[in-house]
Amino acid sequence: NQYICLNHRCALRAYVFCLICVFLCGLSVCVYLLAMFCPDEEPDLQPWTPGHNKTHRITIGYSQKLALTSSATVHSIEILNGGKLVIADTTQPIVLRTKYILIGDQGELHVGSQDCPYRGHFTIVLYGRSDDQDVEHTYFGRKYIGVGTGGTLEMHGEKKRSWTFLNKTLHPGEANLESYHFERGWGNRGIIAHVVDPETGRVLHSDRFDTYRSKNESKRLAQYVDSVEEGLILAMVVNDEGSNNLEDSAKKALVKLGSQQLHRLGFRWASFFVGPRFPATPPGASGCIHYVYVCLEIKYTLGVCKVMMLLLCVSPVRPHASITIDTHSNTSILELADDSSSWKPRDMVVVASTDYSMHQAEEFLILPCPTCSSNQVKVQAYLHMGEEVDGVDMRAEVGLLTRNILIQGEMEPRCYGSEACEFFHFDTFGGHIKAFHMQGVELMHMGQQSMGHYPVHFHMNGDVDERGGYDPPTYVKDLSIHHTFSRCVTIHGSNGLLVKDVVGYDALGHCFFTEDGPEERNTFEHCLGLLVKASTLLPSDRDSHMCRHITDGAYPGYVANPRQDCSATSTFWMANPNNNLINCAAAGSEETGFWFIFHHVPTGPSEGMYPPGRTEHTPMGQFVNNRAHSNYRAGMILDNGVKTTEASAKDKRPFLSLIGARYGPHLDADPFKPRVPARIHHFVAYKNQDHGAWLRGGDVCGGTFPDDDGSKQEVKNSLFVGESENRGTPVPETRLRGPGGPDLNERTMPRGVDFPIRGMQIYDGPINVQNCTFRKYVALEGRHTSAFGFRLNNTWQSCPNNNVTDITFDDVPIASRVFFGEPGPWFNKMQMDGDKTTIFHDIDGSVSEYPGAFLVKEDNWLLRHPDCIGVPDWRAAICSGHYAQIYIQTRDPANLNMIMVKDEYPDRPLVLEGALGKKNHYQQFQPVVTLAKSYTVHWDQTAPAEVTVWLINFNRNDWITVGFCYPKETNFTIISDIHNRLTKQTHKTGIFLRTFQREKMEHSHLSRGYYFWEEDTGLLFLKLKAYKDREDFAFCSVKGCERIKIKALIPKGSEKSDCRVAAYPRHSQMPVVDIPMPQKLPASKLVQVVNRTMIPYACSHFSEMPNVIAYWFKSIVMMTSKGHLFSRGRWTKVIAELGAEKDFRLKGSAFTEIHVEKVHYCV
């Protein structure tokens, strides 16, 4: 048998191995063991050097085994029928240029192996244009590496750390000072010399010459000076005494170099010299020069002081000399979290942005750095955080782009002949790969702006893990995919794939992409994606410009709404929740970091793989230790679906546009089985412009109703930071920078200087926030920052079951704890229904300091009572009560407004516009109501012919009374039913009969109710009562949603149905507090102790504050008013007791500081 050695490392060991193997085991066993070596060490490989011929079509088949040993250019390569191509691991780089490589049945292409990674440098360049005349492959297309059925592709480059974190912050424009320090005193007499490299500041050599003691030392000094190469720096300093035996040969050598003093050196003179190219320093004297500073302007530095020397000495009585050399350049040392010794000079890395803009990500070339430790590399840099800031790990990710195996597309200098040229000025027709096994590979300029042509593509491979017979499971590892034109890694109809240690950078379209919906059990582990930009492929890939101008797939004449139909570019796009994301980072996308999206039915080639609605109920895989920052919209979104039908007159939107969807995970994806919580563990989100995370499932109130009634969302044990010490980098757009944070320092802003930053945005529900800390939320004039807030411009609802408990505020003034909104920038007119009905339950009083209280909008008098405490800074009121909701659905017409009045406050109506838009075929109003109260409902048009009232969050026997306004001579048919939203079944439970005695409504029961038609006022009175039990977090009863349906026969030509003038004051009632207000927390809860100094918050809105202040003895009391507080009543008495002037009034902008010990005070 023949053993062919094709590289520099195998010959000797192969020879020795063969001798030992044959001697011990026989020839046949030897051949078998050799096959376990590196692929290019396999016997029977024939060296192959095809040369350079762009017309040469290569076919390797019929058991041909070739080893490519040098660079080549060919038209194409096909490997099939037992053919094998191996790339020789040589000391010289190999570049293979080809239009495509097709690996067919029984064909193999090997570059290294898992056990023997490729060490040399190998590049595949895929060339060609989209308009080439060659016939393209019906499946793979053009410019590809394609693996067909039965083919094998194995590429394994050197193992390198894929990415890590900065461990020390880099500041913009700040250069490192790399110092060398030399210091000597007694016992180091003579002339001390250093030879320094002027480019790096590195000390190349140093020596001491005792020219006091020996003439031989003087001769040695002369030889030393003559040997210094031209262009180097010679720095010399005299320590103690060096003149006694300093001979002429040494003096002449120094004069030749330019010294003006050392040749005249006197006894115990302290003197210095820097040369040979640079002038001598000032002369010494019989005493001592205390210091000399030399700034050397080296070429290529444009006059910047690149090498600085500081030379010091003290008096001759106590000899001491030192030399300090500082190298100052525009390079920096990256302090990294992990060992990066596998990263070499000339490798490229990318450092992620740690500000709001993803475009602050930067590429850097690693420079030589002999002094760097194993976790350091040298680059040029701007601001990137490398530390934990205010409790949040904001370290920038640092990803390696360079690998020793490179596959790249050969690109034209500009875009040509493609519709994509309307959106991109550069060529987007890169290479692509389908189905392979590789690690340690760099992919650059890959992907095409056409479907199915991606840098890495697993297409309809089914189960590629143990379920499919793969052991170990299929993987791609240690890849660098950058500057791509269509995604990074695409998984289509494939399950169980491991994607690990992959860096995706500067990509068009969703980077890590699962396509049709059936993709499950895939694991993305320690993957980094950053600088992910919009693409033309899918509606969800497109930005607003693309969305409006790409009309393919839309119904004729339809113009897309970008925010509704498109604009969802994401780093990780998960079309099925049953995938694992572990230790991944989404460090900058045009829209979102992680987006879980739902395909109601599978699409494309995956059609029919699962029943309708399965993904919406599929439990979530692992989501652990992930992070997202510098994304334009959100760090994470769990919401929405895609349209799985083609455009039609009924729904004109294009196929795969964004639509609504709700997530409600259940065991086995079966909604009739127990719920399975979707858990998000240790997620870090910062510097995302809109939301850190938007999480919305079927367990919350959605567009109309919850799809998974009875479940909830919880946020526990989390830290929210408003404005951290990461102040960002100044940007030209001044509107994005302004004062902020507790220190009011300049900082970058997410959307503008007046954008209302909110920690927890309460929307829909039920939501539970428990044991969370809110840090550094400080409202400013014109910017309503708050720890708790609500969705801006909200048409939906807030559920009264939303609750918070165990909340801690750190560096958050009490005025910034909550903000309910006010008309103005970002909040607009505050006229949307959700803006008016906001509410949440403060279970333990950790927000309001009233345990068990509810916080409601200050002007929502459906929920207020006389004892509610107004909090002007919050635009809220603190109230007590039992609250629920009713959904009022109306038809014929649907475009009307509803006015709801609580009989206790007839002059404080709540006007609702509806949640569904005026063009919808029905309308829905979603007021929150106080239970056991009476209301009336009016309309700004003629009353609707059909009204359905849903009882939401009503417990058994809860009730309200409502009078609906209708025109006179209207006739009614009223029934009750129960609708089960899970089974989609409805059954009638009773009818309502007319009574002429309003009191008889109290005798209603489930099967028979009574309504009272008060025709002179136009009010139809009903008692809305729940008869079924309800689970804790369910909106409806265990049997379904209890409803009352009113069908009205209204006389034609009837006028507006607004009965308030006739109804009041007849039905006005005295306000009554049914649930007493809770007791306020003790005064000790209102202060925080810092270095034994008691600091009360601004609590002017609490009625008990005067009593509390009276007990704050031996403390400093500081009070301030913004104009709405006047000193009167108990306030006057307390302030006088504290020592204020008799006529003092706390109002306007007055400020008071009073020492309670009454030793002194000042106003």
TrEMBL record:
UniProt keyword list: Cell membrane, Glycoprotein, Glycosidase, Hydrolase, Lectin, Membrane, Transmembrane, Transmembrane helix
Chain intervals for the UniProt region annotation (Disordered): 721-749
Question: Which InterPro entries does the entry link to?
Answer: CEMIP/CEMIP2, CEMIP_beta-hel_dom, CEMIP_X, G8_domain, ILEI/PANDER_dom, Pectin_lyase_fold/virulence
- Major subcellular location class: membrane
Which Gene Ontology terms cover its molecular function?
Answer: carbohydrate binding; hydrolase activity, acting on glycosyl bonds
What parts of the sequence cross the membrane? 12-37
Does the keyword section mention Cell membrane?
yes
Localization recorded for this chain is: Cell membrane
Is Transport one of the keywords? no
Q: GO cellular-component terms in the record?
A: plasma membrane
Q: Which family does it belong to?
A: Belongs to the CEMIP family.
Q: Which protein are we looking at?
A: Cell migration inducing hyaluronidase 1
Annotated organism of origin: Scleropages formosus (Asian bonytongue)
Q: Which gene encodes it?
A: CEMIP
